[in-house]
Automatic annotation (TrEMBL):
<keyword id="KW-0677">Repeat</keyword>
<keyword id="KW-0012">Acyltransferase</keyword>
<dbReference type="InterPro" id="IPR011004">
    <property type="entry name" value="Trimer_LpxA-like_sf"/>
</dbReference>
<keyword id="KW-0808">Transferase</keyword>
<dbReference type="GO" id="GO:0008374">
    <property type="term" value="F:O-acyltransferase activity"/>
</dbReference>
<dbReference type="InterPro" id="IPR001451">
    <property type="entry name" value="Hexapep"/>
</dbReference>
<dbReference type="InterPro" id="IPR018357">
    <property type="entry name" value="Hexapep_transf_CS"/>
</dbReference>
<protein>
    <submittedName>
        <fullName>Acetyltransferase-like isoleucine patch superfamily enzyme</fullName>
    </submittedName>
</protein>
<dbReference type="InterPro" id="IPR051159">
    <property type="entry name" value="Hexapeptide_acetyltransf"/>
</dbReference>
<dbReference type="Pfam" id="PF14602">
    <property type="entry name" value="Hexapep_2"/>
</dbReference>
<comment type="similarity">
    <text>Belongs to the transferase hexapeptide repeat family.</text>
</comment>
Length: 161
């Protein structure tokens, strides 16, 4: 395959998966972070390396690019455990402050600053992040259960030509 003929980054997704798997090994084995094997994250996610044992990411959760997950606060001398539950989605450029727990099945909107715990099955957004919807139903990686139906409708309508 010539580089000029690359139609989609999905055709080389195995490269990304290999890099992420290597980073997962470094984060969990060398730094001591608690990141579930089924969790996924962007290559540009920023996990706190000052207190790496305080970073906990649940099963089938996804952390997007430029997200900062903090487990320490240097100014107050705090070293806290920051937890993201199972089946969560953390949107791009969000900041999760030290000691926060994001409940399972929750979504954090892009650019949010999470200063308080997020209840399970909620959507939060903003700065500071506030609950904008509760009792949501998501599947793996915080994806809405009807997301595949929506995609198929768009494909059928020709939106992805």
């Amino acid at each position: 395959m010539k580089l000029g003929k690359l139609r989609s980054l999905n055709s080389i997704s195995w490269v990304r998966k290999s890099i992420i798997r290597t980073k997962w090994h470094i984060y969990t084995k060398f730094w001591g972070m608690d990141i579930a094997r089924s969790a996924s994250f962007s290559m540009k996610t920023h996990f706190d390396k000052t207190y790496p044992k305080g970073v906990h990411i649940g099963e089938r959760s996804y952390v997007a690019f430029d997200v900062a997950i903090l487990a320490h606060d240097m100014t107050r001398g705090l070293y806290l455990h920051t937890r993201i539950g199972d089946d969560c989605f953390i949107g791009a450029r969000s900041i999760i402050l030290p000691g926060i727990t994001i409940g399972s099945g929750s979504i954090v909107g892009s650019g949010s600053v999470v200063t308080k715990d997020v209840p399970p099955h909620s959507i939060v957004a903003g700065n500071p992040a506030k609950v904008i919807r509760s009792d949501i139903e998501v599947g793996p990686f915080g994806r809405f259960t009807n997301a595949e139906e929506t995609k198929m409708r768009l494909v059928a309508s020709g939106a992805f030509d």
